[in-house]
């Protein structure tokens, strides 16, 4: 295995890879293999360590005005909440966003790597990369590491010349194009609200409210999601963060407490 | 198994009073099923028991304890003392030593001359008496920390309520499996106050 760290250097090998069959394609950055006696079990333990972190809710959908992306902000390790303020929407570049679900380190690193490759593409070809191209780059890289314990369930959302684009990419090597996606342990709850309220021709505000509600409902029902519901909008001139509301406040906004009659019972002693 | 339903329980001693508080979530692993589940039960005017752990065992155990207490009332024509009640719970749990109830009870009561009494047990009946506070449930480690930091001896009922509420809410905010509100009972010799806390619903 070649110890190529082009992902970490500022220039990659875009032209002229070593294999004649795949010339012109960037080779996947590869990492050093650890020196263990039992390589397979080492990988299994590494997978187990990363596994609990798929507790999250992220969603994204395409509508008439662009792409809406939303996520919660809780990181959990088994039952323990390790943080309520994790940034799960990663800004790849000013017009593309990626969401984080699964291993936090994996998502952050590979999204940053993808950002680097996109920028290199821009410089080499004098035009921005399409969302299709960017998601394909990421999917191919993840496919090379298939079975090695990466845990990534991400959505790449952006606006390119063909309009809004949304792709779901995961660490098993899958890549799906679609109009609505939700990823994470809270995704069934988010899908329920999202599918019910979705219409293609919504305004930006309506879409933002739908995304916020869907995340809120997921955080209410799912133990591993919570914290802050952040909503981003991707339009023709790039992404914009619309809101980051604490989910606890949203609850009391949507369902204000009705003061009930309190009975006092005096106890005879 | 203790983390199947999720729970958080805490009891604290004050000056001639005690407070017992629980969260209100009932879940099936990560999914929340109900947000108004009752974990604290009244045995009689001066003894409350909270049951954490597996919800089905908590309900069954409560029913058995109420039965035993009613029998005691009929035979002895008086209410049980908290120390006696704790021994009863411990014996019932140990009967099932090799097929236990997956519950950790927290017992709080006012004894003769209104001296507050609290204790907790593990699932096979090992009593742990404490003079200040006891905790149980999935959030127990966070609760230990919060109580240790916030507890002062000889608090009055109002201050005790504030302290126990803050300890409960801040601990369950660090636990995925408990929370979604709080239920606090503050018991003094003359009255029992039941309050429901607004918490983070995530």
From TrEMBL, chain A:
Keyword Nucleus: yes
Source organism: Actinidia chinensis var. chinensis (Chinese soft-hair kiwi)
Catalytic residue list: 56
GO BP terms in the entry: proteolysis involved in protein catabolic process
Pfam families recorded: Proteasome (PF00227)
Lineage, highest ranks first: Eukaryota, Viridiplantae, Streptophyta, Embryophyta, Tracheophyta
UniProt-recorded name of the protein: Proteasome subunit beta
Function noted in UniProt: Component of the proteasome, a multicatalytic proteinase complex which is characterized by its ability to cleave peptides with Arg, Phe, Tyr, Leu, and Glu adjacent to the leaving group at neutral or slightly basic pH. The proteasome has an ATP-dependent proteolytic activity. The proteasome is a multicatalytic proteinase complex which is characterized by its ability to cleave peptides with Arg, Phe, Tyr, Leu, and Glu adjacent to the leaving group at neutral or slightly basic pH. The proteasome has an ATP-dependent proteolytic activity.
Catalytic activity: Cleavage of peptide bonds with very broad specificity
A GO molecular function held by the record: threonine-type endopeptidase activity
From TrEMBL, chain B:
GO biological process, one term: proteasome-mediated ubiquitin-dependent protein catabolic process
Record-level GO cellular component terms: cytoplasm; nucleus; proteasome core complex, beta-subunit complex
Record keywords: Cytoplasm, Nucleus, Proteasome
Principal place of residence: cytoplasm
Localization (cell): Cytoplasm; Nucleus
CDD domains (alphabetical): proteasome_beta_type_3
Pfam families per the UniProt record, alphabetical: Proteasome (PF00227)
Domain of life: Eukaryota
The family this protein is said to belong to: Belongs to the peptidase T1B family.
Function summary: Non-catalytic component of the proteasome, a multicatalytic proteinase complex which is characterized by its ability to cleave peptides with Arg, Phe, Tyr, Leu, and Glu adjacent to the leaving group at neutral or slightly basic pH. The proteasome has an ATP-dependent proteolytic activity. Component of the proteasome, a multicatalytic proteinase complex which is characterized by its ability to cleave peptides with Arg, Phe, Tyr, Leu, and Glu adjacent to the leaving group at neutral or slightly basic pH. The proteasome has an ATP-dependent proteolytic activity.
UniProt cross-references to PANTHER family, sorted A to Z: METALLOPROTEASE TLDD, PROTEASOME SUBUNIT BETA TYPE-3
Subunit structure: Component of the proteasome complex.
Protein name (record): Proteasome subunit beta
Organism annotation: Actinidia chinensis var. chinensis
Lineage: Eukaryota, Viridiplantae, Streptophyta, Embryophyta, Tracheophyta
């Amino acid at each position: 295995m070649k110890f190529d760290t082009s992902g970490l250097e500022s220039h990659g090998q875009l032209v002229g890879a070593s294999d004649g069959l795949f010339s012109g394609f960037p080779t996947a950055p590869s990492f050093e293999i650890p020196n263990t006696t039992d390589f397979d079990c080492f990988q299994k333990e590494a997978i187990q360590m990363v596994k609990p972190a798929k507790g999250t809710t992220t969603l994204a959908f395409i509508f008439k005005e662009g792409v809406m992306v939303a996520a919660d902000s809780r990181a959990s390790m088994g039952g323990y909440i390790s943080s309520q303020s994790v940034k799960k929407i990663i800004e790849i570049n000013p017009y593309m966003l990626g969401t984080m679900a699964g291993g936090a380190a994996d998502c952050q690193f590979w999204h940053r790597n993808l950002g680097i490759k996109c920028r290199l593409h821009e410089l080499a070809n004098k035009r921005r990369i399409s969302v299709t191209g960017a998601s394909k780059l990421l999917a191919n890289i993840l496919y090379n590491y298939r079975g090695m314990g990466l845990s990534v369930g991400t959505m790449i959302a952006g606006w390119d010349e063909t309009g809004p684009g949304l792709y779901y990419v995961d660490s098993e090597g899958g890549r799906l194009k679609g109009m609505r996606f939700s990823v994470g342990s809270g995704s069934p709850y988010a899908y329920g609200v999202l599918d019910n309220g979705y219409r293609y021709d919504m305004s930006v505000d309506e879409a933002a409210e739908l995304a916020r509600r869907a995340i809120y409902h997921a955080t209410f029902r799912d133990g591993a999601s919570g914290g802050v519901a952040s909503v981003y909008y991707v339009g023709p001139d790039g992404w914009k963060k619309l809101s980051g509301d604490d989910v606890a406040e949203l609850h009391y906004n949507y369902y204000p407490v009705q003061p009930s009659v309190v009975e006092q019972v005096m106890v005879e002693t | 198994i203790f983390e199947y339903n999720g729970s958080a329980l805490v009891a604290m001693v004050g000056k001639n009073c005690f407070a017992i508080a629980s969260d209100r979530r009932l879940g099936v692993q990560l999914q929340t099923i109900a947000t108004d589940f009752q974990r604290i039960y009244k045995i009689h005017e001066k003894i409350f028991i909270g049951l954490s752990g597996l919800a089905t065992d908590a309900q069954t155990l409560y029913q058995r304890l109420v039965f035993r207490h009613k029998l005691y009332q009929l035979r002895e024509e008086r209410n049980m003392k908290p120390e006696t009640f704790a021994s009863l719970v411990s014996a019932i749990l140990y009967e099932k030593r090799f097929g236990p109830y997956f519950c950790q009870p927290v017992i709080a009561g006012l004894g003769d001359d209104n001296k507050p009494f609290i204790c907790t047990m593990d699932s096979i009946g090992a009593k742990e008496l404490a003079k200040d506070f006891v905790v149980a449930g999935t959030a127990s480690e966070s609760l230990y920390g919060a109580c240790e930091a916030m507890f002062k001896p000889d608090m009055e009922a109002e201050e005790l309520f504030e302290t126990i509420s803050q300890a409960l809410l801040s601990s369950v905010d660090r636990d995925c499996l408990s929370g979604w509100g709080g239920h606090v009972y503050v018991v003094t010799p003359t009255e029992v106050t039941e309050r429901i806390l607004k918490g983070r619903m995530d």
